[in-house]
Specification:
By secondary structure, the chain is of the alpha/beta class. The chain contains seven helices and ten strands. Helices cover 40% and strands 21% of the residues.
Length: 275
């Protein structure tokens, strides 16, 4: 299943048309469009609206292993960026909290990557922009989606619609910008789907059992489990080798946080070694 969020109908319409999505007439709270393998929701503008709608979409039909979650929309940019260029977001800064988020992009793709900053209000001056792009939804989407799927199955595709403080953009402009990039968006979604399917079978049974053994022996918290899982996944993508060598590090049940940190740091160091 592919889950897509877009803040405005004009951003979503080219995608709805391209995939021939039909309106979900049973949905009471949001505009949702669907097919057998896709759900798209119109979230409304702003990170709070986007977070709430994304959570609603994912909670109603929870994602399975191999499903992906994608945010598609327009964004502002610093001077020098070309209007109409699509970017895959590799870093998100929330301007109001100062927090940074890093989507975990493991698959090969043809899009350019860029950072984005999410603001609570429309930005009128580039002086306030620390990152390269800006919008009002990305951080809300990412935080919400992260509660339902792993970070490497969350993607944000943003099309530059204007340079902050220089250009203005109409609804017709937005529609055309997404229309002009819908085939590139589709190509990326297809690649991400294939990657997610492979990811679901990345680990052999023995590797999954070993990870569970490590989780149990070290009494790892949920966040540490996610870090270790991600490190194992990165290792396999980078090297093509299995992680069964971790059996040889001599793990034993830990008795305190200090011992846990020692073993955890050791495992991560092995997984991050250069080839």
């Amino acid at each position: 299943m592919v889950y897509i969020s877009a803040s405005m109908y004009v951003e979503a319409k080219p995608i709805i048309d391209y995939y021939n999505l039909k309106k979900d007439v049973d949905e009471r709270y949001y505009q949702v469009f669907k097919s057998d393998n896709m759900r798209l929701i119109i979230t409304g503008v702003g990170k709070v609206n986007c977070a709430a709608a994304t959570s609603h979409l994912l909670a109603k039909i929870p994602p399975d292993d191999g499903d992906i979650v994608v945010n598609v929309g327009i964004c502002g940019a610093k001077d020098g960026f070309q209007i109409g260029t699509p970017y895959l977001i590799n870093k998100i800064k929330d301007a109001s909290t100062g927090r940074d988020y890093y989507p975990d992009i493991l698959l090969n793709h043809d899009l350019k990557e860029c950072s984005i900053e999410t603001f609570d209000k429309p930005l009128s001056s580039q002086e306030l922009l620390e990152e390269e792009l800006c919008d009002m939804e990305s951080s809300g989407f990412y935080v919400s989606a992260s509660k339902y799927v792993e970070q490497h199955r969350i993607f944000l595709i943003k099309v530059v619609s204007d340079r902050v403080g220089i250009d203005t953009v109409s609804k017709d402009d937005v529609l055309k910008l997404i229309q002009n990039n819908v085939e590139k968006i589709d190509a990326f979604i297809k690649s991400a789907e294939e990657f997610a399917k492979v990811d679901g079978s990345f680990f052999k049974k023995e590797e999954l059992e070993l990870m569970e053994k490590i989780f149990s022996s070290l009494k790892l918290t949920k966040s540490l489990k996610e870090i270790l899982y991600k490190s194992c996944l990165h290792y396999k993508v980078r090297t093509g080798d299995d992680i069964l060598f971790l059996e040889n590090i001599g793990l034993s049940d830990v008795n305190n946080k200090r011992e846990r940190k020692k073993y955890f740091d050791l495992i991560i160091s092995y997984l991050e070694k250069e080839i």
